[in-house]
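Standup notes
- DV: blocked on the single-chain target, sequence here:
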Amino acid sequence: MVVSWLVHSVSTPIRHSIIWMDMAIDVWINLKTRYSQGDLSRISDLHSEVVSLNQGDLSVTEYFTKLRIIWDELDNFRPNLVCICQTKCTCSVASIISQRKCEDQAMQFLCGLNEQYHNIKSHVLLMEPIPPIPKLWWLSKNVNWLTTSL
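- DV (later): unblocked, structure below
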């Protein structure tokens, strides 16, 4: 079923080159080898894009959505590492890496917000731990509530 979906999702000339493949993984590897962009080049472009993105005339939701799309694409190219050791890992490196990634995304989000959110940025960056991204989005959308409760 997956092979059929893949075969019927590509143009006719490409379809002719994969139609006799029986396994979806073979089709996928073949297409990826032929058509994927250089990963590092795309990763570099995404990093540049995320660093230069600011809220500007966008609503907080639109700005957040643009960031989320870039972060999701970066996650696609560079997924979180998972320990595959035979013995169960006892150090907390994986959770620290995950927490730092969340903090980096929070700082990217906050730094790109317009100047009217300066107080929110200052307060949030003092929080330990920094709230997760969905909570930051909610807080920035509800700026009036946040400024009266802090």
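- Follow-up: The chain has two domains: 2-35, 39-149.
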